[in-house]
Amino acid sequence: MREFIMLLFVLVALAVPVAALASGTPTATSTANQICKLAQTSMGATLFAQTYATNASKADAFGKCVSKNAATAKQDVSNASKTCTSQQADPNFAATHGGKTFEQFYGNNTSKGKGSAANAFGKCVSQAVSKSVAAQAKTLTTAAKSCKAALKASATDFAAKYGTGRDAFGKCVAATSKTK
Q1: Dihedral sign for Cα atoms in the order 147, 151, 153, 155
Q2: Within 10 Å of residue 178's Cβ, how many Cβ atoms?
């Protein structure tokens, strides 16, 4: 009996994340991964590793990027969800979206058995998060390029401002991206 209860508990615990993924709404982790993938692509592997890696082999760059962007990603998902909830409740939504309801505007007919309304909220959040992710990746890339130029212009000034440790370049990118 005890084993059955434990098995049931495990199955329920596994079902919750699967249900969350089925809704199509992005998570903070998936959003942070997207930010880092886009940043890595636009920066290039060397600049990306220089920005985020903290070990000698620079093998931890992607994980460090995800960790550093997790809070921002969580906020992105929260903001997108609030925006979509507001849009969904807006009685004038159709008037500003070509006569389409929220479900018609964001939904599609690919969901099984529930029609277009089944995935409208998730699609709305995904679109809002995607825009935010692209903007953040661009900001990080611009900041990294600025830091690379600053380091090249004067290593002494760069070291005085950001230090000489393995994370000096990352400190520069973090500080510069906040001002952009």
Answers
A1: positive
A2: 9
| Residue entry with tokens 């290039």 | 44
Query: Under a CB-based contact definition with an 8 Å cutoff, are residues 124 and 85 in contact?
Result: no
Using one digit for the tens of pLDDT, what is the confidence trace for 143-163?
Answer: 999 999 999 999 999 999 999
Nearest to 129 by CA among 174, 77, 70: 77
Q: Which residues contact 176 (CB under 8 A, 6 or more apart)?
A: 143, 146, 147
Q: Tell me how crowded residue 85 is: count the other CB atoms within 10 A of its CB.
A: 13
Query: For residue 128, which amino acid is it?
Result: A
Place of tokens 């611009």: 142
How many other CB atoms sit within 10 Å of the CB of residue 116? 17
Chain-centroid distance of CA 163 in Å reads 28
Alpha helices, H only, the chain: 2-22, 28-43, 45-52, 61-89, 93-96, 102-106, 120-153, 155-162, 168-179
Separation between Cα atoms, residue 143 and residue 162, nearest integer Å: 14
State which residues form the domain around 28: 2-179
For the record, the structure tokens of 117 come out as 């309304």
pLDDT < 50 regions, the chain = 1-22
* Calpha distance 111→121 (Å, rounded): 13
Predicted TM-score (pTM) of the model is 0.74
Residue 179 tokens, joined: 């001002």
Q: How many domains does the chain have?
A: 1
User: Which pLDDT value is given to residue 165?
Assistant: 87
